[in-house]
Input
Amino acid sequence: MTADHPGQAEIATSDALDLRASTGFLWLVYLNAFVSGAVIMAFEMLGSRYLNPYFGSGIYTWAALIATVLIALMVGYFLGGWLADRWPTHKLLAGLIIASAVYLAFVIIDRHVPDRGGAHHGSAHEVSRVFWLIPTLGSRSITYLLAGVALLSGLSFLMAVPAIAGSLRRAATALGGLVLAPAAALVAFGAPPAQAQQGGIFERYDSGTDDVRLIEQVETSYNNIYITQRGDFITMSFRVRRRDETESVINLLDLGELPLPYTRAMTVALAYADNLDKMLMIGLGGGTTSRYVARHVKDIDVTVVELDRGVIKMTKKHFKLKEGPRYHIIERDGRVHLMRNRKARYDIIMVDAFRGGYVPFHLLTREFYELLKKRLTPGGVAVFNVHGGTQLFESTMKTLTAVFGHVETVPAAGAYITVVRNGPPLSVYEATKRAEARQAKYKFRYDLRILLQGRRKVAIGPRARILTDDFAPVNLYESIKKSNVKK
Output
C-alpha cells in the first residue's frame, strides 16, 4: 500500500486479508479467473448467433465481434488493475463479477430492435458443430446459463467469508437450482442425438465428355470458388473440406438451357404467383435461373442479392451475365436486404443460398420466413432450394408451414424445391389453368404444366422442430437421415 491512498487499510478488511493469505482463497481466485474467461469466450462464440440475422454471417461480422471482445478485455484489464491497486478487497471483485452476470442475462437481443433501427458465413455452423450446447439448448438458454455460472462464480468469494457463508450458501444453492435444473432437463430429455457429418449433394449433367479443365480458382472471404469447363459446359463449384459443391452450370452454346434439374424446378414459381411484375432472388450462383426468368418474362423486374463479391465477379466473367434496366445485382446478405427494404414487395422470391453445403441458419428460421412473407405481394410466392432426406428438411417444412400454412414441394435430383404462397393455396385446377395460360403466353422452355405434375405434399415427422433465431442446429439436423415426402 502507498501513502497516496490512506483509506486502503480500512477498506481491506481483516477477513479479506486472512482469505488472501490462505492457499484456499488463492485457488478460489484461480478458479474464478478460469470460469470468467470460459464465460467470456463462450459468449463470444454465441454472439455470432445473435448478430448473424441482422448483420449477415460473413467474415466482417466475426471481425467486428472479435475486435469488440478484445477491446473490452483490454479496457477491463486496465480498469481492473487500477481498481485492484486502490481497493484490494474480495468484495469488490465479487461485486464486479455478479454485476457482469446480471448484465449478461439482460444482453439478449430483441429481434425487433435491429429491424426497427433499419439494420449488413467464421460461421455459427462451425461453432454449433464443435459445441453441442447450441443445438441442444438454444442461444437464449445458453446465455442465461452462462450468466448463472458467472453469478455463482462471484458469489463464491462471498461464501468464503465465514460470517456470511451460511446464508449465502443457501441462496446460492437455490439460485443454482433455478439456473441449472432447466438446462439439465433439456440435456436429459430434449437433446437430439448427434450423428456423423454428411457430404454435399452433387447435381449431374451430361456434357458428352469427361475432360474437365480448371479455368480459374478464386479464394474469397466466404468461399473457395472453382470455375471448370467440360466440353461446352462451364461449372461453378465451391470446394468445402476437399469436396466440390456444384453451384451452377451453363451451356456456352445455349445460354437458355438450365442443365441442373433443381434450377428448372425452381421456375415452377411462375405458375403459382398471381402476378409476374417483380422478382427477388437470394443467392446468385451462376445466375442461370434468374436470367432464364428475365429472358422469358420480358417485363419483369429482377433483383438478385449475393453476399460474395467474388461470386458476382466470376459470374459476370465466365457465365456471360450482364445487368440491365430490369436486371440488378446487389452485394448484400439476403436477410439484411429484406430488413432494409421495408417498402419493397415482390411477386416472386427465390431463395437458393448455400455455403459449404448448408443454407445459413438465419435463412431457415421462423423469423426469416415471417420477414420474407411481409415482403411478398398478396398472392406472391416464395420458392426455396432445400436438400431432402434429413431432419433439417422436415424441420424446415414444419417452420414454413407454421408461417405460411400450406407447403408444396417439387423433387429435383436429391433436392426439393419448396413452394409457399402469401395467401390461400391454389387448387390443382387453378394451378393447372394458370400454368397453361402462362406457358402459352411466355413459351417457357421448361413447360410449367410438366413441372406442376411433380408436386408433392410434405409428410412431417414427429421429431421435426420449428427453427428459430434462438434454436437452429442446421448442421446437426442436416446429418440426421429421414424419409419425408409422400408420393
